[in-house]
Amino acid sequence: MLKKKPLILVICLMLLAGITQAETQVKAENSSVTIPTNNLNVRQGPGLSYPILGQAQKGDQFNALSREGDWIKINFQGENGYVASWLVSDMTTSQRGEKAASSNSQAIITTDGLRVRKGPGTSYGVLGTIQKGTAYKVMSTEGSWVKIQTPYGDGWVANEFVQYSGSQKKNSSSSSQTGKITANSLNVRNRPSLNSDVIGKLNSGETVAVISQNDSWTEISFSGNAGWISSQYIAVQSSQSESKPKQSASGKTGTVTATSLTVRNKGSLNGKPIGSVTKGQTFPILEQADNWAKIEYQTGSYGWVASWFIDITAEKNSGSSQQSVNGSSAIILHNGSNIRRKASSQSSVIHRANKGDSFEIISLNDDWYEVRLPNGGTGFVAGWIVKVEGSAPAVTKPGAEQHLENKTIVLDPGHGGRDNGTTGARGTREKDITIRTAQLLADKLRSAGANVILTRSGDTYLPLPSRVGISHYHNADAFISIHYDSTPDRTARGATTYYYHPFQQELAANIHSNVIAMTNLRDRGYRAGDYHVIRENKRNAVLIELGYLSNPAEEALISSAQYQQSATAGIYQGLARYFKN
């Protein structure tokens, strides 16, 4: 019996060790949440509309059973409950850390709209949001948080939403890739952060060797060393793509007219950016849909570009620069507007038109529309004194771009994520149309050389203080918050622009007058308004309501591509006029 006791003891210890090991492993495979405040509501389902199951207290910890959108499922007092992920500290175990996060590794984001915070916890303010698939350099880790370099500066993200790689994501054939710079006086930095040191500058048209690239930053060879530039100001090309354009199935080719034009994966502003092309590049037009054109922007790579920034020419008339303007009309904005014999302000006047007169557009010649006159003849009218109806692109006054170049403009598409904003009479959601307007305006401003930052680039929720924080962080020269209005009175219509501080009034006046001129909406004036994003903003900031979604007729108008072009051209022109003064 005495001999058996040590044997039994050994077996017991082995079983105990096995149980302990199994328990540790189970915990290691789970994540947990810590409650950072008292009386946090635990709900019966994943949403604010579900009944409250009970209240958790500060410091309570729960195993996270699963995730449903922005909600985490937990076991609360023996029942399944849900807590909002943005209100808790999310703790993860080393399961996701099989590859340790070191200062030499890259954090690849695994979810869209991930919040970048000022510190390692959900109690810290939000600097901005980053998107799935982007990669950022890891600075350090603390608990379940990782510090990374982002376009908003160094910030913290939850460890569970990243994967680690040993090095920067490389292009498949970096040795054969070069990039053409699309902005003047572009800063080259020693690391991918706006807070890093500037080691030199590049000018538009210069060609550089590309080492690696992600959605936000591009690593290049600069003076024998590696440097970093913003990805939005370089058009990356493979050396083999310099060959002569292929035959177009549509019989048309397109020449880029914008300084830098975004290529998207589908013909919509909701399409994901997959590349960019630069002014003067020519491509065969493979397909056209609405106001978008499909091109082969690199050998074997296809995408869609906005056709109003493409000079489309039929190949059989290769000497012509006529754009596709079929079915478009030019509406005169002012009484006594001149229509001239040639596309020049020095040419003789052959017809005078008044506000509201409509003329068929025959072609676009630089910044002038060739139009059909009542007597059957043709003449030319300046593109910046008319409103366009149809597929023809809106024209802004020549020279406007010189006043926008190098200006930092923050665009704030209202609402997003769980906040839909208002919903129109026909079902249009405000959050969807504000991002559409902002992305179109961003493309126009970037083509003029402006530095544009969007507070959100997808359908994500961002608190109002964070939107203002982005304006302050980037020292914005202008902050534009874009909204659409609603009221129980379905006959209400028109545009209104708001400012709060007296120094913001001049910007509001310039933007408002130009939007009204370009869209011909009812003028509801510009006035003082007590809105957080302009009241708490120390920068030049305005909030603009671009029409009423609650009015069925106006909802149909403001949802159209033509209106979106006109409205964004008005904001563009208003900004240019403000910076010119």
UniProtKB/TrEMBL annotation:
UniProt signal peptide: 1-22
Residues in SH3b domain copies: 28-92, 103-166, 176-238, 251-314, 327-389
Coiled-coil intervals, chain numbering: none
Biased composition (Polar residues): 178-187
CDD domains hit by this protein: MurNAc-LAA
Keywords, ordered alphabetically: Cell wall biogenesis/degradation, Hydrolase, Signal
Biased composition regions of type Low complexity, renumbered to the chain: 167-177
Keyword Transport: no
PROSITE patterns: SH3B
InterPro entries membership: Cell_Wall_Dynamics_Protein (IPR052354), MurNAc-LAA_cat (IPR002508), N-acetylmuramoyl-L-ala_amidase (IPR017293), SH3-like_bac-type (IPR003646)
Region named Disordered: 167-187
One Pfam family from the record: SH3_3
Protein name: N-acetylmuramoyl-L-alanine amidase
Species assigned in the record: Cytobacillus oceanisediminis
